[in-house]
Amino acid sequence: MLKGLQAIFGLIGGMVCPIALAVLGYFTIFQGLDWIYLVIVFGIYLVCVALVVLAFPKDGRYAAYCEMMGGGFGWVWMLSIIATIWFVISALFMDGSWWEVGYSFLVGGLCKGWTRSFMEAQREQDIENVVSEFSQVMENLDWLLAFHDVGKLPYPKETILNSIVSAYKLTADENMKEVLKSGLLALSHFQENIGESPVRGAVDVTQINIDELSPEEYLAMNEGIDEEKYGHLSQQADKEYQGYIELL
């Protein structure tokens, strides 16, 4: 409960404070407002950032931080557009200052760049999380010799596909690209209407000692073997995989 309130307060404050800083910056520069108010709000902003970082678990802190920072700077960017239009009108028709136009334009431009940077960082973090969770599923299931139901995937199949493709395009490491291609091959081995038990074409004899195998264990290993269905799924998976490769 306390962590939740801490996160909510931090996120709200973290999004409002950049707007307050931009407004107070204007009044400090052009209206002679005491700069101490700017320092106070900046201090509150740092506290809000710390609250968000400490409220979320380690694996979610960076995403929450990016969301807060991008949201706050995004609002300043959008509001600066309105402010710039007003200052231009004021400068043209009401004896306003062009320095005010420059201030609004500069703040808006900086916040636009920061917003895009944080949004891109958050997107890359989301991609990394999806690929990482799918890789764990790959490690736990014998996907190379069997077909599994899409229900065993940690995310919708389309989401995983888009994340792997995006990760492939973001990296320059050739070894990582090959690993990601393996991920696409594994993804093609997750199909609809498989059910809880995987579909196999044969028993993987390299992983067993036939001499020590009991009749019960042999029957259990043969469960799910369906050569005809496996062949049909293999053709479907090959076609899918080729379509995935074309996206790279």
Protein model, in words:
The chain has 248 residues and is mainly alpha-helical. It has two domains: 128 residues; 106 residues, no CATH class. The chain is 74% helix and 3% strand. It is built from eight helices and three strands; from the N terminus they run ααααβααββαα. The protein has a three-stranded mixed beta sheet with strand order 2-1-3, with helices on one face. Helix 1 packs antiparallel against helix 2, helix 3 runs antiparallel to helix 4 and helix 4 crosses helix 5. The longest helix is centred in the middle third of the chain and has 43 residues. The protein is elongated. The chain starts with a helix and ends with a helix. The mean pLDDT is 86.
Largest sheet: 3 strands, mixed
Distance from N terminus to C terminus (CA atoms, Å) equals 44 Å
How many β-strand stretches?
3
| C-alpha Rg (nearest Å) | 28 Å
The shape, in one word, is elongated
Kindly give the count of domains. Answer: 2
By secondary-structure content and strand pairing, the structural class works out as: mainly alpha
Largest sheet, spatial ordering of strands = 2-1-3
The SSE order reads HHHHEHHEEHH
What secondary-structure arrangement, pairings included, does this model have?
Blueprint: H1 2-30, H2 36-55, H3 58-93, H4 98-140, E1 146-149, H5 157-170, H6 174-187, E2 190-191, E3 199-200, H7 215-222, H8 227-246
Parallel strand pairs: 1-2
Antiparallel strand pairs: 1-3
